[in-house]
Amino acid sequence: MSLKNRHSLFFVNNFVTIRWYTSKKNGYIMKNIILAITIGYASLLTSAIAHNNNGYVMTPGMKVFKKKLRRGCRSTGIKFSRVHTRKEWQDINNGNNLKKEAVYICPRLKIDKINQKDWENLFDFLVENSKDNPHRIKC
């Protein structure tokens, strides 16, 4: 077999590199094909990484509600936070009545499993998504 018609495969960094030893025209075509495959592979990986959060970022308060309050409340975090306005939530928190208010809204809630840092994150979530906030999110 002559050097002109021989081709070989090389595996470098999980990419297939094809070397085609033929005329200049065929080599140019293969080079473009390899370039197109590489660009397609890179764009596929980029799109998979970029769209893994479905368009929103979960805040710490939302995580606390989903993990520790949702079962006791039997509702979403948005319904829970829209019970009061921002000012009302701030007054409740300043009076150290956030735990009492949470039990009042959700009687089945077990508040002994929620630590102080989680209450702070939950308060930020409640103020951010209160009744008078026009911003609507899905929870």
Topology summary:
Blueprint: E1 7-12, E2 15-20, H1 24-50, H2 60-73, H3 77-81, H4 86-94, H5 98-105, H6 116-128
Antiparallel strand pairs: 1-2
Oligomer: single chain
Order of helices and strands: EEHHHHHH
Roughly how many Å is the radius of gyration? 29 Å
Give average pLDDT, whole number: 76
Kindly estimate the percentage of residues that lie in beta strands according to DSSP: 5-15%
Counting DSSP H or I runs of 4 or more residues, the number of helices is: 6
Q: What distance separates the N and C termini?
A: 66 Å
How many individual domains?
Answer: 2
**How many beta strands in the DSSP annotation?**
2
Please summarize the sheet with the most strands: 2 strands, antiparallel
Helix content: 40-55%
Query: Structural class, from helix and strand content?
Result: mainly alpha
Strand order of the largest sheet: 1-2
Low-pLDDT sequence parts: 1-7
Net shape = elongated
Write structural notes for this entry.
The protein has 139 residues and is mainly α. The protein has two domains: 7-50, no CATH class; 60-128, no CATH class. Helix content is 55%, strand content 9%. It contains six helices and two strands. It has helices spanning 24-50, 60-73, 77-81, 86-94, 98-105, 116-128; strands at residues 7-12, 15-20. It starts with 6 loop residues before the first strand and ends in an 11-residue tail after the last helix.
